[in-house]
Amino acid sequence: MKSFGRSVASVIQGRSLAAQAAAKQAEHRFKATPQDVKVTKLPSGVVVTSLENYSPVSRIAVVYGAGSRHEPANALGITHSLRVAANQSSKKATAFGIAKNIQQIGGSLSCSTSREQVIYSVSCLRNNLATGIEHLNNVATGHDFKPWEVQDAAKVQRQDLELYLHSPEAQLIEAVHKAAFRDTLGQSLYMPTDRVGAYGVHDLDAFVKSHYVAHNAALAGVGIDHDVLVHLAKKFTFAPGQTPEHKKAKYHGGELRLDQRSRLVHAAVVTEGVAVDSADVLPLGVLQLVLGTGPYVKYSNNLASSKVAKAAASATTHPFAASAICAVYSDAGLFGFQVTADARDAGKVLKAVVNTVTQATKNTITDAEVQRAKHKLKVCCHMDAESSAERLEWIGAEVLLAGQVYGLEQFDSEVDKVTLEDINRVAKKILNGKPTMAAVGDLSSTPYLDELV
User: Fold this and answer.
1) Of all helices (H) and strands (E), which one includes residue 441?
2) What is the mean pLDDT of residues 72-91?
3) End-to-end CA distance of the chain
4) What is the dihedral of CA 309, 314, 316, 317, to 10 degrees?
5) How far from chain centre, in Å, is Cα 411?
6) Separation between Cα atoms, residue 4 and residue 24, nearest integer Å
């Protein structure tokens, strides 16, 4: 009768062969050498930047310097229209065809806007990159607006506005920018309600032709070899043209209050910050972490290391949130704090946090606090860099603004150079500036700006 079991000899022989095969594979195993961010400027004017991180998923983005700050006064909200129109037909493919082909490769195609950039991006497996690039090119450079598709997009715009009007946090961000800058950086990411459906094919074409041009564009990639991306960049049909002139942002300061029915108040108090190319941008980033941001431990009260959270906690027994904020743009910035508190305690919380922030201008910050904040800043940067999607937008926006991208090692080195004297100097310079305030919610117990500072 034949045995059902394998003999001991065959088992040993099989394991031996497997071990030999594994040893040979180890000898020829690919060694991933860490890569730095690389930058190439093409003769057309397009800047190409990439980071090869050996990820199985490649992410490519086309970045234009065409955010909401670039909207003319008679076309406010047009970048919102373009964001919604990203899934519409192009010159070489229908909307259905683009969606079908991206879904077949398991990819993702999206468009996002900020105050300074419009970003079209695609992500897919490396072996499907050709298809992904083809449709990214269609969407980002081959616009062909159809009247019926533009008209249908008004429904999505209304949905976006409904979501926005139900998000007091988003309203606060827009309000504080509006109060601080009025126009330029004060122009909202969202379309005014009375402009929904107002922009037609001619309006969209005019903005695209003036802003979606080669010298105002960058092509960024993460998870792709730089030489490959440079080769693929030549297949993109960027329109020739120079970077359009735009108005320089000017900080004005002011106050904007949006009284709404709510149990909470969301408020922010800021002063003029610095631009991205300022020597004070890193000291200001360290100062933000000295004052404190959101909790790093889930469900913690964040009182151990956050000065603003500790101040807010001393003024209320109800749930709250408090964080220092720092927004940096190409030619301006904002720095300050924001709080969320029970409407009944909003005044007490705001006054407590203002007093704490004011103390930071009087040389009360210690070297130990600065060293801890520097470590936090480096950790935050490295953790953000672990996300390919975050890194993609980061390098794309940076290369478009500055023409180069700083590596993490260089960033760490520059942070290490920040001293306590730098922090005290920046704190006095920034926090003693002209203030701006925005508040959203039940403002019956919320003081006005001149009652706070």
Assistant:
1) strand 436-441
2) 94
3) 97
4) 100
5) 18
6) 32
Q: Would you say residue 32 has pLDDT above 90? A: no
**Is a pLDDT exceeding 70 seen at residue 145?**
yes
SS3 (DSSP) at 443: coil
* Rounded Cα–Cα distance for residues 199 and 72 (Å): 13
- pLDDT value at 289 more than 50: yes
State CA 256 to chain mean position distance.
Answer: 24
171-183 pLDDT, tens digit per residue, is 999 999 999 999 9
**3-state helix vs strand vs coil in the chain, percent to 5:** 45, 20, 35
**Residue in the structure block whose two tokens are 């006005």:** 448
Residue type for position 451:
E
Three-class secondary structure assignment of 44-111: CCCEEEEECCCCCEEEEEEEECCCHHHCCHHHCCHHHHHHHHHHCCECCCCHHHHHHHHHHCCCEEEE
Residues in Cβ contact with 51 at an 8 Å cutoff, skipping those fewer than 6 apart:
35, 36, 37, 38, 221, 222, 223, 391, 395
- pLDDT value of residue 201: 95
What is d(CA 446, CA 448) in angstroms, rounded to the nearest whole number?
7
- C-alpha 54: how far from its chain's center? 23
When the pLDDT of each residue in the chain is averaged and rounded to a whole number, the result is 91
Closest alpha carbon to 67 in 244, 250, 327: 244
Residue 229 · residue 62 · CB < 8 Å: no
pLDDT at 25: 53
**Angstrom distance (rounded) from CA 309 to CA 323:** 7
DSSP state of 189: S
Rounded to whole angstroms, the Cα distance separating 157 from 163 reads 10
Residue 215: CB atoms within 10 Å:
16
Q: Are 140 and 124 in contact (CB under 8 A)?
A: no
Q: What whole-number distance in Å separates Cα of residue 348 and Cα of residue 356? A: 13
Q: How many CB atoms lie within 10 A of CB 343?
A: 17
DSSP code per residue over 381-440: HHHHHT-HHHHHHHHHHHHHHHSS---HHHHHHHHHT--HHHHHHHHHHHHTS--EEEEE
At 11, which helix (H) or strand (E)? Answer: helix 8-27
**CA separation (Å) from 264 to 339, 350, 368, 443?**
10, 13, 35, 9
